[in-house]
Amino acid sequence: MPATLTPPPTPAAKQTEEEIAASLERLSRIGIETLNRRDWGYTSPEAQEFLSHIDPEHWQSKFDNQPGLLTWHEQNDVWRQLVEELHPDCHFAITHMSSAVHERESMAIVWVQSKVTGIENVNIQGLSELRWRLENGKWWFFYHVGIRGFLGQSGFV
């Protein structure tokens, strides 16, 4: 009786840069939605997925109204104070999202343009840059830059 060999497992299909971009944009959107839900413990399954792509020890952010780089925990404290204590009606509505994946360099950037409402009866345009890096087959969100637009409807142009 001849022996039958089990074929080796098929390796996972390599994602295209477009698929990677879509995945990182989805994760970036989850982060903003979590902020809008005031889920500071990141308790929803989606928020847990987002959180699994953050290493708090190697994460930084910079905002135009903050005097230096913030850690993950410091940034969450700032968000909580802004949207829970100072402006409880604050809401971030994503108006545009785009990304660039540089797989050869193991880097990607997601840009998010948003309309911020609920802050003193004005609409503020916001622009965020979320930087991602690929390590050991996993994408990590490691750096965030946030810039406020002008008050009113003028945006960034």
Task: Please give the count of helices.
Answer: 3
**Sheet having the most strands:** 5 strands, mixed
User: Strands of the biggest beta sheet: in what spatial order?
Assistant: 1-5-4-3-2
Q: What coarse outline follows from CA principal-axis ratios?
A: elongated
The SSE order reads: HHEHEEEE
Looking at the structure, the CATH topology is Nuclear Transport Factor 2, Chain: A
Classification by helices and strands: alpha+beta
* CATH architecture classification name: Roll
Count of distinct structural domains? 1
The Rg value, from CA coordinates, equals 19 Å
- CATH class bucket: Alpha Beta
Give the N-to-C terminal Cα separation. Answer: 76 Å
The beta-strand count equals: 5
Level of helix content?
A: 25-40%
Mean pLDDT: 88
- Which blocks of ≥5 consecutive residues have pLDDT under 50? none
Percent strand: 35-45%
Protein name: SnoaL-like domain-containing protein
Organism: Cercospora berteroae
Structure keywords:
5 strands; alpha+beta; Nuclear Transport Factor 2, Chain: A; five-stranded mixed beta sheet; 27% helix; SnoaL-like domain-containing protein; 157 residues
Description:
27% of the residues lie in helices and 36% in strands. The protein is an alpha+beta fold. It has a single domain (17-151), classed as Nuclear Transport Factor 2, Chain: A (Roll), CATH 3.10.450.50. A 5-stranded mixed sheet has the order 1-5-4-3-2, with helices on one face. Helix 1 crosses helix 2. The model has no long low-confidence stretch (mean pLDDT 88). This is SnoaL-like domain-containing protein. It comes from Cercospora berteroae.
